[in-house]
Amino acid sequence: MNTGTKLYLLSDSKADICLLKSKNLLGRVKFEPKEKVRVKSVDGTIIETHGSLKATVREGQVEVTFTCQLVSNQVDIQGDGILG
Question: Does residue 1 lie in a domain region?
Answer without folding.
Answer: no
